[in-house]
Write a structure and sequence with these properties.
heterodimer, A: Sufe protein. Chain: A, 5 helices, globular, B: Aspartate Aminotransferase, domain 2, 7-stranded mixed β-sheet
Chain lengths: 149, 414
């Protein structure tokens, strides 16, 4: 993976026009995520119904293109999924970004999210891709703040 | 290895050969453009050789062995202390304490001199442009003693507002602890004025010279500062060694922070008497090779000379500033009149971390982030900056590569 691959058009496009970039009020689940190392800071909001389905999910905040695109694509992906499905996707995504899952050879539930494969070659940037996901996972666990440090 | 220049112009090709890492390629064969000198400087062969020689053929501990190699190591280690003394023009070697770096030197002052001399209601004055290493130790002291931490403001160019600074110094001020050269803005602070204002009220002055010593001559007697601290690794030596300079009477008044070997005169289970300076403040085996390497680094820069170094770095700063100012969308953070060769910048729509990664793809090594100066970022309302920092071995071609890579990064986001 080259740096050019890291900054594919899809990433740039999500960074410029993030999807679901708004607050959900009231949200049934929400959390604030920090990357103290680089100052990335975002909030993830979710509306989860009684059946455990994520009816709506959104985010707000500021960060680099990788963190913003990752958050944007996460909200697209998880809308309509169940909490159990979201946890399974989080687990695969986490393995992907730390280089423990090769989406080309191993079964996974990532779909278009596999665009982040290879980011593990940029250790300084793994946390950027993972921040929104850790924040989402924290919100599911009723944590109010999540830090990547 | 004498590169003493004629007419202040350096033989850059020869100098660059002294730094083995400059011959490396990174990221699929790109030539290294090293512009992260404010984070750490590169190490020239004489430093690497001195460290290697010590561990390969000297190897021994200092101050205790009666054998040949230990005596030799002691002589080299204490010789390095004398080299540092001469470098900063301290009165005597007892005023030069080896620490592990700038951070440990500031902490040593805060936790010993500070704890002894600063009480509830007393004031410590710092500036808005301090590195976290010159903020947090004083906050810890505040927790412990109830002292007050005052912060002198900076203007939009990143300069210390001296009229405000002057108002903040008062008879309650016990110490003024300020950065000499800002690592994130490049601002060179008017140390003489600061010291003069502090003196009027009897306050002590600590200068954080971490970003100064590799770029300009520092004379502690001429400045008349009370403490001066710096790190070896930002002065072409290895990491793990640094210096605390202090006036003898102040260092003598400081209780030791760490107890242990080398800092004692006699030990019984009932009572221990401490050794004199500088050993009293250097408990345990120090970074022996590191200190010897620091001595070699000082010899190296001294041979080149700060007139030539300053001229080269000023040329690089002016040239790079000109290039960067011409790139649409680039905003420089830190435009002080007195400035070191540090260029901090932001680009509309391109986060510094993305910029850092995209520059790296072109072989250009910079720092992206808050540079351990979060209050500076807050002051300029930016989450982070990209920082290119030059040393005398950099070339105009390095600045060209930076500007080219920045333009390319901007295109990725266009």
């Amino acid at each position: 993976m080259t740096t050019q691959d890291l900054y594919q058009q899809v990433i740039i496009e999500h960074h410029k026009k993030p999807r679901n970039f708004r607050k959900i009020d009231p949200a049934s689940h929400h959390a604030e995520g920090f990357n103290p190392l680089c100052g990335d800071h975002l909030w993830v909001y979710m509306k989860i119904n009684a059946a455990g389905v994520i009816e709506d999910i959104s985010f707000e905040g500021d960060g680099c293109a990788i963190s913003k695109a990752s958050a944007s694509m996460m909200t697209q992906n998880l809308k309509g999924k169940t909490v159990e499905e979201a946890k399974a996707i989080f687990s695969d995504f986490h393995k992907l970004v730390i280089g423990q899952l090769n989406p080309e050879t191993e079964a996974n539930v990532l779909g278009r999210l596999s665009i982040f494969s290879g980011i593990w070659k940029y250790p300084a940037r793994v946390k950027c891709a993972a921040l929104a996901w850790h924040t989402m996972n924290g919100a599911l666990g009723r944590e109010t703040t999540v830090s990547t440090e | 290895m004498n590169h003493a220049p004629k007419n202040n112009s350096l033989d850059l090709a020869r100098i660059r050969e002294d730094f083995p890492v400059l011959a490396r390629t990174v990221r699929d064969g790109k030539g290294l453009v090293y512009l992260d000198n404010a984070a750490t400087t590169l190490k020239p062969r004489p430093v690497l050789d001195a460290v290697y020689q010590h561990y390969a053929y000297g190897a021994s501990n200092i101050h205790r062995g009666v054998h040949f190699l230990s005596e030799e190591a002691t002589r080299l280690y204490e010789g390095a202390r004398e080299t540092v003394r001469r470098f900063i023009n301290a009165r005597e070697t007892a005023e030069v304490i080896f620490t592990s770096g700038t951070t440990s030197a500031i902490n040593l002052v805060a936790k010993t001199w500070g704890k002894k001399n600063i009480a509830a209601g007393d004031e410590v004055l710092i500036t808005h442009m301090e590195h976290h290493a010159n903020i947090v130790p004083w906050q810890m002291l505040r927790e412990e003693t109830g002292c007050v931490l005052k912060v002198a403001p900076i203007n939009d160019r990143g300069e210390l507002m001296m009229d405000e600074f002057e108002k903040l110094v008062s008879p309650r001020t016990k110490i003024v602890s300020v950065v000499y050269t800002s690592n994130s803005l490049g601002t060179i602070n008017p140390a003489r004025d600061i010291i003069r204002m502090a003196r009027l009220h009897g306050a002590k002055v600590l200068l954080d010279a971490a970003q100064t010593v590799a770029h300009a001559k520092v004379d502690v007697r001429d400045l008349d500062c009370d403490f001066l601290v710096f790190s070896g690794h930002k002065l072409f030596a290895t990491s793990g060694v640094g210096v605390l300079y202090g006036k003898r009477e102040l260092l003598e008044s400081m209780p030791p922070l760490m107890g242990g070997g080398d800092m004692i005169k006699t030990v019984t289970f009932e009572k221990t008497t401490y050794a004199g300076l500088p050993a009293r403040l250097e408990a345990g085996t120090p970074a022996i090779g590191g200190a010897i390497g620091l001595g070699a680094a000082i010899d190296y820069v001294t041979a080149i000379g700060f007139d030539a170094i300053a001229a080269q770095e000023k040329d690089l700063l002016d040239y790079a500033t000109g290039l960067m100012t011409e790139v649409p969308g680039v905003r420089l953070i830190g435009t002080a009149a007195a400035k070191a060769s540090i260029l901090s910048f932001i680009v509309d729509g391109v986060h510094p971390h993305d910029m850092g990664t995209l520059l790296d793809a072109e072989g250009v090594a910079v720092r992206a982030g808050h540079h351990c100066t979060q209050p500076v970022m807050q002051r300029f309302k930016v989450p982070a900056t990209t920082r290119a920092s030059f040393s005398f071995y950099n070339t105009r071609a390095d600045a060209d590569a930076l500007a080219r890579a920045v333009k390319k990064a901007i295109e990725v986001f266009a």
